[in-house]
Amino acid sequence: MGLLALNGGTPVRRGGWPDWPQSSDATRRNLDAVLASHRWSISGQYRGEHSWEQRFADAFADFTDARCCVPAATGTASLTIALEACGVGAGDEVIVPGVTWVASASAVLGINAVPVLTDVDPATGCLDPDAVARAITPRCRAVTVVHLGSAVADLDALLAVTARHGIPLIEDCAQAHGARYKDRHVGRFGAAGTFSMQHSKLLTSGEGGAVITDDPVLARRVAHLRADGRTFSATPPAMDDMELVETAEIMGSNHCLSEFHAAILLAQMEKLPRETARRAASAARLDVLLRGLGCSPQETAAGTTMRAYYSYVVRLPATLTQVVGIKRAAAALSAELGLPCKPMYASLDRNPLYNPASRRRFALGDRFLAAVRPDSFALSAASDFSRCCISLPHRLLLAEPDEMQQVADAFAKVIAHGAELA
Fold first, then answer.
1. Exposure b/e, 133-146, CB count within 10 A at least 16 = b
2. Which residues are catalytic?
3. pTM recorded for the entire structure
4. Across the strands, what pairs with 231?
């Protein structure tokens, strides 16, 4: 196979993978329409037609079959306001999976609640229902579950646990646009589902988010929380008047999605089903090829009926990770493919981005600081998942399925040269 590219050899492929994000003619038309409307925000003057934000909310509710959708500025904001809308507040405990992007925990801290870092299923990397059952205390007010990478969590088991304790389940679907469990879109099983539309996401406008729910009372609370305590009027206002009404039902903050972001998302939604199908076809081909090399692609819960590949997560052979380490192996794969191949997120008890003590706003007393110390949690499965798995970006899967052979060739080359890497 020759010398590794990391050590000066010829790479398997010198890049040339599909780019992300990808715009379309519809993206440009929608943005031009926003510019011409002179209404660039939902807090701008009413112009005689539905805002782009409302149009996106309707379209995304239809896409997920949810009764209600409330857009927001970011995925973190969506999770924050969903937690608050469910009644979570200062000093309450919230279950958070041990492997996830750091915002899953920092959003909980942001409302002065306590993230309880909880272990994951070793095959999926998603929240382990048995670990959740052990972690729940009388102070627990919610469980947040992240559908990670391309996996859907075991929703049946998690719902059974939360129902037994009478607490809400909130689904963090930031990485799961289009994923389905028992033929229902994820996000519709718990009290609410939250989404991110950040740059790397499967549905993106650079930044953005949304909360979906089938509970109109909860949706109304979410709407107030994201718009400084305001919500849309029941009837259209006069031209150039404000469409948001100051009901003062609950004090909120400004987490509104701009009209530009909403217009981009509506255009991006037109492409999402085709892209989801292409990624699934490429991932199926890659699964077969990598299993033949001794790798273990990320699994998903048994009830999954459609996977959405935000990232292609795969566990490398122990013979490689134990000798070389995951960072070195990922760097070697990146060099062979001309594409960023990254280790999975560090488990939250060891993640340098999760450090509550680094911010004075969380200095709420010794008891609180002790409760949120990351190293006070035992996350053996999460740590192992992070130590052994790498993540390939979803744009790779937009290539033709037969191009996955080059990905497998890169894996084979790195595995064969483990001693050289060490």
1. bebbeeebbbbbbb
2. 201
3. 0.96
4. 245
